[in-house]
Specification:
about 30% strand, five-stranded antiparallel β-sheet, 4 helices, alpha+beta, binds adenosine-5'-diphosphate, five-stranded mixed β-sheet, Ribosomal Protein S5, domain 2
């Protein structure tokens, strides 16, 4: 983000390097129920991102001292495969993954009826197999499907999406080049029914007006991503075995 470069991110026709309009999402595909041994699972392809989510729980929280007497704890682990990025990523948790696990846990906890399951944990594993920017918001979107697949009661589904600014233009859903060389990135997670904000981060600089435009774009996009989530859930549960 904010790295100076001569790369032109918006062409003379106002199109982006991958041919998209400023408010256009990358292609998204979702599938629910892809793993046999998890309580719930889902897979998402979002632009160049490929992410698997698996959920276990609610189950007795272990070690015991982490148990909360009046609610479940939500533990999301975000991890990137060594082969998920251009230069091999050193395997194992780093500062970034730990931070992302924490913010994703908090966002997911805000939609789960955690008070129904005291002393338990709900563990969410987000495995990034291929990364192309926007993995935290795609991770939240696919985790919501895995939670629903596990039958965990939620106030709403939760949908992630980012917007930002490249070459002075407010754009939706930044890809890797835009993330690297653009001016700002604003990942958000929204509860689509109530339009509550469960996550809002900002990297880079924008004016208030630009931020507002970015948020409006994200709100609109999360409504259509939410429809895709519902369709993916229906496909699983209307499937003839
Ligand atoms: P997000 O994926 O949520 O946008 P970042 O803004 O931190 O999170 O990362 C943007 C992109 O940068 C990632 O999606 C990935 O493509 C790339 N990236 C992140 N960490 C690494 C890493 N350790 N090595 C190489 N590329 C990385």
């Amino acid at each position: 983000m904010g790295m100076k470069s001569d790369i032109k991110l918006i062409d003379d026709n106002g199109l982006r390097i991958d041919g998209r309009l400023p408010n256009q999402l990358r292609p998204i595909k979702m599938k629910v129920g892809v793993l046999q041994r998890a309580d719930g699972s889902a897979y998402i392809e979002w632009g160049g991102n490929r992410i698997m989510a698996a959920v276990y729980g609610p189950r007795e929280a272990y070690p015991k001292h982490v148990q909360e007497p009046d609610k479940a704890i939500v533990r999301a682990r975000y991890s990137m495969a060594a082969f998920s990025v251009d230069e091999r990523k050193r395997p194992g948790p780093d500062r970034r993954s730990i931070e992302l696990g924490k913010v994703i846990s908090e966002a997911l906890e805000s939609v789960i009826f955690v008070e129904k399951y005291p002393r338990t944990s709900i563990d969410v594993y987000i495995e990034v197999l291929q990364a192309d920017a926007g993995t935290r918001v795609a991770g939240i979107t696919v985790a919501a499907l895995a939670l629903a697949d596990a039958g965990i009661p939620m106030r709403d589904l939760i949908v992630g999406c980012a917007a930002g600014k490249v070459d002075g233009v407010v754009v939706l859903d930044l890809n890797k080049e835009e993330d690297n060389y653009g001016e700002a990135d604003v990942p958000m997670a929204i509860l689509p029914r109530t339009k509550e904000i469960a996550l809002l981060q900002m990297d880079g600089d924008m004016t208030y007006e630009e931020l507002k435009a970015a948020m409006d774009m994200t709100f609109e996009a999360t409504q259509s991503i939410h429809k895709m989530q519902i369709e993916a859930l229906k496909r699983k549960y209307m499937e003839v075995e």
